[in-house]
Design goal:
The chain has about 240 residues and is an alpha/beta fold. Helix content is about 35%, strand content about 20%. It has seven helices and eight strands; from the N terminus they run αβαααββαββββααβ. Strands 1, 2, 3, 4, 5, 6, 7 and 8 form an eight-stranded mixed β-sheet that branches. β4 and β5 form a beta hairpin. α2 packs across α3. The two termini are about 15 Å apart. About 5% of the residues have low confidence.
Length: about 240
């Protein structure tokens, strides 16, 4: 979906909060954007998926495959840098307490991204600073953002959720509005777990990967065709990739 949104010249991406396998895609996207703008982001995503397909044919250590590919695909310091055009946060779940934690800024690491993409009970949790984490972080469990700068908020989700329901009271006095009344848009994709599942299989076909990309592009194209945004203004997007 991000690949299709890159085609829209009026879109600017200010921040991405990602959970599940979306954390991996978001990290690669942010890294590519910081190096080469929109073309750099698209190239980084394509190169990442080619590495996934190629490495899967020879990998013996499936648990370490994603980490190895990420280390080849991104420079975490580049994403942490204040000059990075996209502020990235990834969500992971404490495997002992079930508490959701956001890793961003100096806390953002390869381990945190891998943890966010780790399928609970199928793969072992990832140790970070003495605690263990895995994926399936719920955005709705986090405190609401304060004074978001973005004019619009996009949530990419697997199913509808109360978290993305329209705010019933758009007045300034509303205190229970999870988005502080920023316009919220949602793209639903029932195949939202497809990326993570690849890493528990013995081989990943390039055709499957391009099919997943094309399906995501079509979902985003359908959303854009519905005219969710005014065409005469730039949409600064806070994009949230969530897996529920």
């Amino acid at each position: 979906m991000l690949d299709r949104l890159l085609d829209e010249p009026t879109f600017t991406f200010e921040a991405i909060t990602a959970s599940g396998f979306g954390a991996v895609e978001a990290a690669v996207f942010a890294y590519g954007l910081s190096l080469g703008g929109r073309r750099g982001a698209r190239t980084a995503l394509a190169n990442f998926w080619r590495r996934v397909s190629h490495a899967s044919m020879f990998a013996v250590d499936r648990a370490g495959l994603l980490r190895s590919i990420l280390e080849q695909s991104i420079d975490i310091e580049q994403i942490r840098d204040e000059r990075c055009p996209v502020k990235l946060g990834v969500l992971a779940v404490n495997a002992r307490t079930d508490a959701v934690k956001m890793f961003s800024g100096e806390q953002l690491s390869i381990n945190a991204i891998v943890a966010a993409a780790t399928v609970p009970f199928i793969s072992a949790p990832v140790e970070i600073d003495g605690d263990i984490y895995w994926g399936d972080g719920e955005l709705s469990q986090l405190p609401p953002p304060r004074s978001p700068k973005a004019g619009h908020r996009l949530v990419i989700a697997g199913r509808p959720s109360l978290f993305v329901a329209p705010c019933p009271d758009r007045s300034v006095a509303a205190t229970q509005c999870a988005t502080k009344c920023a316009p919220v848009h949602t793209i639903f994709d029932s195949q939202y777990r497809a990326g993570a599942a690849f890493f528990v299989r013995p081989w990943i076909d390039w055709g499957e990967l391009t099919g997943m990309r094309d399906r995501g592009r079509q979902r985003a194209a359908d959303w854009l065709a519905a005219g969710p945004l005014r065409t005469d203004e730039t949409a600064a997007m806070n994009c949230e990739r969530r897996y529920t």
